């Protein structure tokens, strides 16, 4: 199969319609990790790789290669969507035959219409999710370990509350100018701030008894 693909594609020097029909069929057999998979199918031409990735991820994507000048000396392929968001990245071996190579490891991202990151998944099985309100404030986070965290905001976009799956929570208060004046946590700790008319902090106190007073 690999020899046949290699032979046919090399014969199609001018990349005729037949060449791209072949790539269309090959794209059905490309899976994660994408570039490792294409390498296994002898697809090493960069333009052919881009064509296949567009079939998989949609038009408008671009492929970028980046060298990582640190151990284990692998390089990184990054795919960005039409808005410049990184939607996929994959390590590939630089030929050093390093036994600790990251070759084939991948990570992919998804975004909402406003460009907010809403999903991340990696080849090790880990994933993360985010949720946002209409104003772009992060209101939810969850990961593959089962941990989650929720957030609430006031009309001005100030975070006023959070809670998580561990039972922890925090409350925030603000003055009319948006300066934080109070924080309280589920651990029983609290903090207070006071500001002058110009917004300068003139007083601070916490539940440990620590006080700064420059009034």
Secondary-structure blueprint of this entry?
Layout: H1 2-11, H2 17-27, H3 34-40, H4 46-57, E1 62-67, E2 75-80, E3 86-92, E4 106-111, E5 117-122, E6 127-132, E7 138-143, E8 148-153, E9 159-164, E10 169-174, E11 180-185, E12 190-195, E13 201-206, E14 211-213
Helix pairs in contact: 2-4
Outline:
This protein is of the alpha+beta class. 19% of the residues lie in helices and 38% in strands.
Gap between N and C termini: 81 Å
**Number of continuous helical runs:** 4
Instruction: Give the overall average pLDDT.
Output: 89
Number of strands: 14
- Globally, the shape reads elongated
Low-confidence runs: none
Largest beta sheet: strand ordering? 1-2-3-4-5-6-7-8-9-10-11-12-13-14
Indicate the structural class.
alpha+beta
User: Which sheet architecture does the biggest sheet show?
Assistant: 14 strands, antiparallel
Tell me the helix content.
10-25%
Radius of gyration: 26 Å
H/E element order: HHHHEEEEEEEEEEEEEE
- Strand % is 35-45%
Description:
This protein is α+β, with helices and mostly antiparallel strands and 215 residues long. 19% of the residues lie in helices and 38% in strands. The protein has a domain at 135-215. A 14-stranded antiparallel beta sheet has the order 1-2-3-4-5-6-7-8-9-10-11-12-13-14, with helices on one face. The mean pLDDT is 89.
